[in-house]
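S.,

As promised, the iron/sulfur cluster run. Input:
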Amino acid sequence: MENMLYVSSSPHIRSEVTTQRLMLDVIIALIPAAFAGIYFFGLRAALLIAVTVISSVVFEYLIRKMLKRNTTIGDLSAVVTGLILALNLPSTLPVWMAVVGSFFAIVIVKQLFGGLGYNFVNPALAARAFLIVSYGARMTSWTPPLTVANDIDALSYATPLGALKEGGQLPNLLDMFIGNIGGSLGETSALALIVGGIYLLVRGVITWHIPVIYIGTVGLLAWIIGPDGIFTGNPLFHILAGGLMLGAIFMATDYTTSPMTKKGVVIYAIGCGVLTMLFRLYTNMPEGVSYAILLMNVSVPIIDRCTKPARFGGKAHV
Amino acid sequence: MSILIPVAVVSGLGLVFGLGLSYASKVFEVKVDERISAVREMLPGANCGACGYSGCDGLAEAIINEGVHPSRCPVGGIAVVNAIADYLGIDEGSIDVNVARVLCQGNCDNVVFKYNYLGIEDCHAANALAGGMDACSYGCVGLGSCKKVCQFDAIIVENGLARIIPEKCTGCGNCVAECPKSIIKLVPVLSGFTVKCNNHDKGVIARKNCKVGCIACQRCVKVCPSEAITMDNNLAVIDPEKCTNCGQCAEACPQKCITNTIVKRFK
Amino acid sequence: MAERKKPISVLLNGLIKENPTLRLLLGMCPSLAVTTMAKNGLGMGAAATFVLVGSNLVISLIRKIVPDKVRIPAYITVIATFTTIVHLLLAAFLPELNKQLGIYIPLIVVNCIIFARAEMFAQKNGPLLSVLDGLGMGAGFTLAITAIGSVREILGAGTWMGIPVTVNLFEPAIMFILPPGGFLVMGFLVALFNKLADKKDKSLECETGCEAGCPGCSKAANGGEA
Amino acid sequence: MKELFAILIGAILVENFVLSKFLGICPFLGVSKKTSTALGMSGAVVFVLVMSQAVTWLANEYLLEPYNLEYLQTITFILVIAALVQFVETVLKKLMPPLYKALGVYLPLITTNCAVLGSALIFVERNYTFIEAVVFGFAAGLGFTLALILFSGIRERLETADIPEAFKGMPITLVAASLVSITFIGFAGLIIG
Amino acid sequence: MKFQGFRGGVHPPQAKNTMECATVRMGIPEKVIIPMQQHIGALCQTMVKKGDTVKVGQVIGNSDAYVSVPIHSSVSGTVTAVSERIISGSNPVVCIEIKPDGLQEVSEDVKPPVVDSKESFIKAIRDSGLTGLGGAGFPTHVKLNPPKDAKIDTLIINGAECEPYITSDYRECMENTENIVEGIKNVLRWTGIPKAMIGIEDNKPEAIKKLKKAVENIDNISVHGLKTLYPQGAEKMLIKTLTGREVPPGKLPSHVGCLVMNVASVAFVAEYLKTGMPLIKKRVTVDGSSVKTPMNIEVLIGTPVGEVFKFSGGFVSEPAKIIMGGPMMGISLYSDEIPVMKYTNALLALNEKDGKIPEENVCIRCGRCVSVCPMNLLPFDIDRLVKANQYDDLDKYNVMDCIECGCCAYTCPAKRMLTQSIRLGKDALRRKAKK
Amino acid sequence: MFKDIIKPSIILFLVCAVMTGALAYVNGVTEPIIDENNKIAEQESLKNVFSDADNFLDAKTGEELKTEGIDVSDNIEKLYTAQKDGQSIGYVVSVFSSGYGGKLKILVGIDNDLNIKGISLVSHNETPGLGANAANPKFTDQFLGKAPQKEFNVVKRVPNDDSEIQAITAATVTSKAVTKGVNEAVALVRSIVGGA
Ligand SMILES: Cc1cc2nc3c(=O)[nH]c(=O)nc-3n(C[C@H](O)[C@H](O)[C@H](O)COP(=O)(O)O)c2cc1C
Ligand SMILES: Cc1cc2nc3c(=O)[nH]c(=O)nc-3n(C[C@H](O)[C@H](O)[C@H](O)COP(=O)(O)O)c2cc1C
Ligand SMILES: Cc1cc2nc3c(=O)[nH]c(=O)nc-3n(C[C@H](O)[C@H](O)[C@H](O)COP(=O)(O)O)c2cc1C
Ligand SMILES: Cc1cc2nc3c(=O)[nH]c(=O)nc-3n(C[C@H](O)[C@H](O)[C@H](O)CO)c2cc1C
Ligand code: SF4
Ligand code: SF4
Ligand code: SF4
Ligand code: SF4
Ligand code: FES
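Predicted complex:
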């Protein structure tokens, strides 16, 4: 034998799935939602998407360089973060604020904690929360979709949930399903998001547990706690409104910030659902998905700790 | 009046609490030995466990309760031992100041490899796979398991070989226990010439595997004026008690595996 | 404590090497709560310094006569007295600031810095050194929280000491004057300070600074494990 | 009853002592390294908060108010709390060693914990009744517990994270606290009752 | 019978290219190298020295220890060396090198054993040199003689062969069906176990059919098709699938009334009782991307793997990695001088592309490792602690339960070396326990 | 006995006594000043919302008003009477309302003709930059002038008439809370002065 052989510990084969491939799949799955956003909110939406994605990648590159670490933009997770952040922004947001959001997501939430896999809250969502807290007015000035823009006062267009809170005119469910309503540029079209979600399911990137249980919990609670007493709610309205679809399919499922075990995932998804409805119904904020997911992110370490799988052939140890 | 009432209220409280607390501490008194915490304070606080107790707290307890001698702590050195001995009024005893030494010079340039290792950077991990990638099965694997356990940053691994910085090493022995090849030895700081090799293979094999390994040619044995060198299963060993640091062995060694490791600081 | 301490080094100690806020991480609550504005930092710092100096002085004077059993209540009484005095003075002469600082003024009494200095320093040293230590620590505290306040005010409100400074540069991010901003700015400043301050001296870094058994320090954490 | 519930939820979620009121930060940062220690500390804090709220309320009602001595609140409260804590500690040590082992080490740390004195000052400010004050103390303790437990889980995870050198230790802990605090802002607008 | 199954598992590509390759017998090699430890248990002492002549079946290594088996010469010839070599573990093992004389003269000790009681049966099994042929290499006579208080009610015959590439057990089932059935009967008879179950993964329908036919008329032997899912063949999983019982941590199959034997092991029992020829040869699958003609070969134990490859027709490309065993559990060899041993069931030669292991990336907490681990462990967490040198916290994670199946590392998208990390953790815990 | 119990107690007693003595002294000095400060501050804040007045009579609390048979909502804290040259020219109402971050306290100055003279947010816990902007004159000035017959209404666009109040962007909750407080204050004064 002339050449030196490789020696390594078993197993000697690895599956085809790679981090990069998973992230690429998420990007592909988000494309319908991104296009829906551009369709309904115009080129401004496209600009915001481009800006957040590029700035996220650039920040990721620069901060790793600064910290003298290897470059990780190749794993595409920064692209996912940028894309999801963009979909969470109103299309009117000043561009520089979107860049600040990317900075917060990538540098403070992700890389300060060690980068991919180490952050304990969802970077894109934390950045959104940061922007809401910092620039509340800008983050809640919704414009109507281009398709309905001409006849209504542009400045005060309400999202479905906003309208529910303020007693405005509720949009019809079909518009909500297609995305012909106000809101963040990527959250309005349930259709596009579901298409993406099915792609992720088929590719095995996510399992059905989080989206289905999350959305199911919201629907159930919406039905139970109706406006006219118990069991009078309209689950479909709450399911299609706000950022629930985007949140349940793409954000609550983020690996890094969701539990590791099946049991944990169930608790987590139910928690997300309950908190979402708590925020929607019992706070002054019309929308609760972001904070619900963030709060459950924060609880993940404890959930993980309490849901260690039972030992094979015996009781769980500690 | 405006002064009397407040004074009465607060100092009344003070009196009540003073009485209550003093009384309670008398009634509910639980003895603790202050000496333990005093000794604990004097120990270095590295919690390295080199003394064989559960960290410095453990040793402090053992010193007081079991009469263990303070020189059990190899880390603090004479100063700490003296301080504790003074405090407890006991004999200082003697402590050997030891320093760790890696008995191998087989870095990536010197040693021949037998395979291409793909795996975790850890000596135990590589060692589990056919004894590591070095053709010499006695030598330093060079993936730094020792470095990971040294709390004093005294070990660096360069070019596939661990090296100990004697100025930083406290002789705690953690690395000695960790090395899968058992090639780190604690030696008295003042010992000078050392055979930096651990290879017990026959000369031919040793020469084939490593450029700087001991090939058991016995030249050092012959040249040593104080008969301090013996052969142990194909490996030269220097007895520090007998060694006079004359350095003739180092010159005689064709493989250059005897070196003067005495450190300036200790001279 | 055999070695003699130099008054100057005692005074300067608190500024950087053992900066109570950024190095020893004592008295975190006021450092975070009142620092929404630089001005509050100054006010809070001055108030705390007054209490520190006063209590250090009194405690170093009475340290020999107070028996161990009632040491804690006695010291606390002293500290509480000075705190109340400050509170009353503020209410009388600077009512605006008093309102801004709210319950954090009476809370100076439980500020770990003060108790820690009483236990660590005044307890063991004479009045002169104790006063200097109080001054140094107080100055360090003031400096630190004014710095935190400045950063938060500039980023979060676009003003400094109430003066607009960023008018057209950027829209201030309100988060910085809310609780999360406090933690964030503090985190960055501590990181910066660790980098600036004596690098070799790692052990001091937050973990083992306080010997008074103050909550912030590792003794608390380790205590639970033992 | 509804009032009490509002106080309870309010103090746990909306005005969480640690995350939005900045009270009790020192133990929050100091004792959150391990979930087990966090549990111990939380237990001790809840215990002391409930006891001290009761005692300080009584002291305020029957010693200070009758004589118009409100300005002595600080000194009286802190004295009462210090004595209480020390007394409890001594008694526990002797009578209930297991409980002392679990809570004891934290007790002395609590005297200098803003949360205890802070909640006493707050009940005065808000004119709470005895029951309300005690419930408030209990809820504040629970809020502290919630924050501490969640945070300890996160910190255990940070333990093995690959954090930049300058941020290792306290700085990253503070940044993490900031993020947790952002998430709690979600509760800020909770309409209770 | 209901499929109970186990949790987790993975589906690596099967690559069973040699299913239809009937076993070819390889001749006598240039030299054989026989290590004195080919089993779990005590090392054997050498019974011969350099220069001695030995015959086929002659005992050349033995030990007084109970958990150990004798080692026989697989050739007749002259001992040319007795020396320590590194095989695959960290410590060198004494090996006897024999130069065959080509005559294959059989030792006079080789004769059918007289078996008339359980004791004599156990003794015969020990003398046969049989250690588990399923890959673990545990001395079979120890297994067959469980502690008195263990009531064994089921003999499980492991024909799962869940690893990719390997088909040697399948060939065993196809070519040696009678011996398998007879071996089972023998074991049942002498150990008093009432029934036997044969488990075979359902990607081998022919074998299932054939064995079903063979046991048609036997009441207490049944054949079960198993879902094709790695690591179906691991004994704890197999027991769970076939009987629904879970072997508790740290306990043996006998704890739940089971005894697991590989198909080749039982077939060998039958053969030995008939002929008395000890374990000197092994059926080995030769495959992999560098191998020209994948095939099943019957090889004399001690044959250097290089010669086996040469016999199979050599390589299409320079191999970058040689694996003894399957790709999931096998050991990668550093040299082609390493001999085939009793437990060797496959030899794989992989080319550069297949042989290289991708670089580790950071864990993205995807949870895949957790969901595939058949032992319900948290591989990412163990890995995290091991990498951080935090061995103290490791006890809580049941590290010792890991069966090193490799599912976690196989499935990890970040390509983390989880199984190796866990081995390291086990190693550290063992060292700690020793201290 | 003495050393263990009595002595510590005496010392603690003495420390407390001395310290409290000092405190009581300081309090003696500062108390009048603080009281004075508070009074001035109160007058100032009242004057802020009713600059025409030169004196404010001591307040009546909501409870007291109730006993006088005036219909007041629970949110009314106090009612001050504003005087000019000894003549009552109007009222200042201190009213609570619940905003985004909890209670708001609002002072509303209203003259006898139901003209709103001034509004100020005395204390609130609203989010800086959002709800807190309700304290800005930009928002509060919308209320000045004659109180509408019905009530003030919050709208999210440019107001059409004087009874409409434009909400602060993204702080509708606060805007509504302030408006509700003002409406209650107006209702109270209306019931006192009658009709107009
Ligand atoms: C120390 C030790 C003792 C064992 N003792 C027995 C035994 O008494 N009875 C038995 O049936 N198997 C025994 N085994 C064998 C195991 O049950 C098992 O077959 C062997 O470890 C291989 O497992 P695997 O093939 O799943 O890898 C023992 C194994 C070891 C390592
Ligand atoms: C992950 C794993 C996979 C295994 N796969 C098989 C297999 O496919 N076939 C087999 O006979 N033994 C397999 N084994 C070994 C069995 O656990 C067990 O040791 C063997 O069946 C016992 O029989 P033996 O002692 O006759 O070898 C596997 C072990 C492990 C840990
Ligand atoms: C962190 C945060 C703080 C907020 N603060 C206030 C506030 O102080 N006052 C307020 O009216 N709304 C506040 N809001 C917004 C409300 O939740 C709600 O969105 C808004 O009042 C609805 O008004 P709009 O219809 O004008 O958007 C805040 C929201 C967030 C997320
Ligand atoms: C299914 C899936 C969902 C993801 N969702 C998010 C997300 O909501 N926000 C985000 O910043 N990154 C997301 N990522 C990318 C990546 O996991 C994330 O940046 C990590 O949290 C960084 O450590 C997602 C990745 C995957 C595979
Ligand atoms: S080099 Fe070894 S003996 Fe020396 S301090 Fe480090 S671990 Fe201890
Ligand atoms: S000395 Fe030992 S532990 Fe250190 S690198 Fe070499 S082989 Fe590894
Ligand atoms: S190798 Fe161990 S940890 Fe990994 S899947 Fe298999 S049993 Fe689980
Ligand atoms: S499979 Fe790999 S990336 Fe996924 S959780 Fe496990 S170790 Fe992490
Ligand atoms: S300052 Fe608040 S607990 Fe220390």
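Chain F has a mean pLDDT of 85. The helical segments of chain F are 2-49, 62-67, 137-140, 172-193.

- D.
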